[in-house]
Amino acid sequence: MPEEKLPTAFLPAETAEPAEIDRQRQLLLESPEIAEMMDAMLNFSVVLNTQRQALLINKALLEFLTAHGIINALGMRPGNMYGCRHPSESPGGCGTTEACRHCGTGTALWEALKWNESAKDCRILSKVSGEDLDLRVQVHPFSYKGERFLLMSMMDTSADRRREVLERLFFHDILNTAGGVQGLISLMADSEPAEVHTYVPAAVKASERMIDQILSQRDLAAAERGEWQLKISEVGAVELLREITGLFVAHEVARNKEIAIEESCLDVHINTDRTLLSRVIGNLLKNALEAESPGARITLSCERTPGGAAFTVHNPGRMPEESRLQVFQRSFSTKGAGRGLGTYSIRLLTEKYLKGKVSFSTGPDGTTFRAEYPASL
Fold first, then answer.
1. Does residue 107 contact residue 123 with C-beta atoms inside 8 Å?
2. Fold of 160-374
3. Going by fewer Cβ within 10 Å, which terminus of the chain is more open, N or C?
4. What is the Cα–Cα distance from 157 to 311, expressed in whole angstroms?
């Protein structure tokens, strides 16, 4: 009776037996020049069999893996080596999940298995390093003694990507605020003289927020150099949400849409960096507004948690499957390459600087993003 094949949503799931892996490795080691050349590379490199399992690992990658507790990576696939969160979603592991269809490493391997050299950018949410890994992956198929193998080299571009994202984040957020200021000024210009004063407090708040963001960007740049300290103050949830909704009510993305704070919202107070927290909630709100059509109702709320507070932003639409699989990845945006920051900036600020965590759910009842923060930093 033939062995039942494992399910896959992308690349073949079948793996080579340990004895076969050992045979292939010994075949490659018959030529010591192969391992020597790989060890001479500054970038991570690994030779894979056609089942995408590691046979030879160079010194640079081996040191990285050992430092993160991976002692024996022989026979592992790339996603397992790096601690990608997705292999556990399918019995076939790395390369066989729905998310693998959108993975740079997965698509590069798919092309290489058709005997085409391929280079792709790849973003991995790594459980091994605890950080995002941004990699430039190149896969070169080659033959040796009549057998086919794949040489995969990987360059870590995480630091460069992070700096790029922080710069784009600044312009993204400052334009959000500027759009709110412009909207408020337009309302003032179109109002009767007796009504103008009603918009002045909101305009003052918005201009103060813009200055805070400019100063915050300076601080974020310092943080990347390890020179920045958070500016901690007490923040009340209701006041913060009112300030943010007041800014966006006049924003272009909110035209003909309703923004509301839930009646059940608790006025939880936490000690945190107010500017960064307002940027997170503001980005969540803007993303929700951009995802909806006129007439939609976006709601914000806050609840007390055992460790602090959780803010939620809900919009009635269901997130497309492709977007759901890539949420929180660096540089991913539903608006296309080079446009916006998607939800990565939210996770970056929440986890790296505010020591919180962010999650989401999406379904027939809509999409809800939830950001949790400690009672005190």
1. no
2. Heat Shock Protein 90 (3.30.565)
3. N
4. 32
